[in-house]
Write a structure and sequence with these properties.
By secondary structure, the protein is mainly alpha-helical. It has 23 helices and five strands.
Length: about 500
């Protein structure tokens, strides 16, 4: 038996072999195997949906194939992490475990703390490496940008060559284990996914999507990203692949710089440079928001500005919440966005913001249940980004602009021909474009000629558009004027504010 130490690489949401430091470090130390654990805690959590599972399933197929080329077996287990590792160490006495840091939801945070303690009790060296430009134990944001840039602007980690082969002793040892496989949705008693147009998971699709963006789609990025009509093609669409780790963010930045250099001196230089700069700025914000949750895990549950506690909680109406979840609010652009999300697992940022804003202001729903509902439908659910944005759009941070979106205005601006609404609300397809903004106001003689009836074919608006807007505006601005809210906002800005701007953003008019 070889005396070389045995190492495990614990894959979580970093499902790739390219630019993967834990895998590289493990291979340099000794004979290596990889493990992925499908945890029941995830399946039982608010963030789980069958579409997420299918994305994971495809990602693991690619990961297994890529690891096999390196001679590294992938062990797949279903169970809690501590149970799985306890069983593995009895049959495969590993000395080292390597993984990426995860800034996840509460159950993953508690799991990681528990596993660190368990590894220590077993004399196993557990080492984690940053996945994004996020710093653990950060006291304030003053020097965060330098840290973020140092992590992300590094050279890509070297490619891993063939590490070990089936003739080595550790392979004999691991053959005593069943590598296992991922159970199916049917095996787990779970329903099929309704995301019929979702992006497929995995490294192969990730690289293909990234290259198509930098080859052609990205040249119209900034002009395409705000409208749901153009965003599905014009946006990069790599966010699920970043969230699941099929791509590393450093890899994306490297490709971006390669593209920037390739267009210098060409006729397309100005157009590409402008769009690449816009795209790069969003990659910067990606890590900025994740750092917030890393520094304050309570953001998943609590208002960033605690002085907003009590703003909406006692006024929650289940009927309004359910109509919003079902895409049956009577506001076509809102309903189309929700239905599109359920079919694709993705919608563009402006439409996400509008969904959250509408729920928070016009329906006056607390951000916690609405954020959790959206989380399971976003294939690119990234907790640090998601909960920070949910609170921003709900107006409970005290440091961000108040944005009360007008569904009618957004329809005119972002879907002027009714293309998006007609696609996802087909019951409205026969209406004239002018009537898609407010179907309940369709002239009676027109509705009769089309055999269209509000309440039968499409719901009445669940709230009065004008009244709900004015009531929400009055309530939120009254809270923002409180001395206690403003005092707490200064603390929030000091802890979480971007050092790119050292002032409070001005409050804007509804959009």
């Amino acid at each position: 038996m070889s005396t070389r130490p045995l190492s495990l690489v614990w894959f979580k949401k970093d499902l790739r072999v390219c630019d993967h430091r834990p895998l590289l470090e493990a291979c340099q130390i000794g004979q290596t195997a990889a493990v992925y654990i499908l945890e029941p805690e995830w399946i039982k959590s608010f963030e789980f949906e069958s579409g997420q599972f299918l994305f994971l399933e495809k990602s693991l197929i690619d990961l297994k194939n890529d690891l096999r080329k390196l001679g590294i077996p992938l062990i797949i287990r279903y169970g809690s992490a501590i149970t799985v590792f306890s069983e593995l160490i009895k049959k495969w006495p590993f000395s080292f475990v390597f993984s990426h840091e995860e800034t996840g939801v509460d159950w993953t945070f508690k799991r990681d703390l528990m596993m660190k303690s368990w590894f220590q009790s077993q004399s196993v060296q557990f080492t984690e490496y940053p996945q994004f430009g996020v710093k653990r134990g950060l006291k304030n944001r003053d020097h965060w940008l330098k840290h973020r840039n140092r992590i992300l602007n590094r050279a890509l980690h070297p490619e891993i060559n063939q590490v070990w082969d089936s003739g080595q002793p550790a392979w004999t040892l691991i053959k005593k284990l069943e590598l296992g496989h991922l159970p199916s949705l049917q095996d787990l008693g779970l329903p099929p996914s309704e995301k019929i147009f979702a992006l497929k998971g995995g490294r192969t699709e990730a690289v293909k999507t990234l290259h198509s963006f930098f080859d052609s789609r990205g040249q119209n990025y900034f002009s395409s990203l705000s409208s749901p009509v153009t965003a599905f093609d014009g946006c990069s669409r790599i966010s699920p692949y970043l969230s699941w780790g099929n791509l590393s963010i450093t890899e994306v930045l490297s490709e971006l710089e390669n593209k920037r250099q390739s267009v210098i001196g060409t006729a397309r230089e100005k157009k590409w440079t402008q769009n690449l700069s816009q795209f790069e700025s969003r990659l910067w914000w990606h890590c900025h928001f994740i750092q917030k949750l890393e520094s304050e895990p309570e953001i998943e549950f609590e208002n960033v500005n605690r002085m907003f506690d009590g703003l909406r909680e006692s006024e929650f109406e289940q009927k309004k919440f359910q109509a919003w979840c079902d895409g049956q609010t009577g506001f076509p652009i809102i309903d189309a966005c929700m239905r599109a999300l359920k079919q694709h697992g993705w919608i563009n940022f402006r439409m996400r913001a509008m969904l959250m804003s509408f729920a928070s202001y016009q329906l006056w729903l607390d951000w916690r249940p609405t954020a959790r509902f959206l989380a399971k439908h976003f294939l690119d659910f990234e907790p640090g980004i998601h909960f920070s944005q949910a609170q921003m759009q709900s107006g409970v941070t005290g440091i961000n602009a108040i944005r009360i979106y007008s569904p009618q205005k957004q329809t005119l601006d972002r879907d002027p021909n009714g293309e998006f609404v007609r696609k996802y609300c087909p019951e409205l397809a026969k209406l004239d474009t002018c009537d898609l903004i407010a179907p309940h106001l369709t002239p009676p003689f027109v509705a009769a000629s089309l055999d269209f009836k509000i309440g039968r074919d499409y719901p009445e608006p669940i709230v009065d558009p004008e009244l709900s807007y004015h009531q929400a505006k009055e309530k939120i601005f009254l809270w923002h004027k409180k001395a206690s809210v403003q005092a707490e906002a200064k603390k929030v800005l000091l802890k979480h504010g971007s050092r790119k701007a050292r002032h409070f953003p001005t409050q804007k008019r509804p959009i």
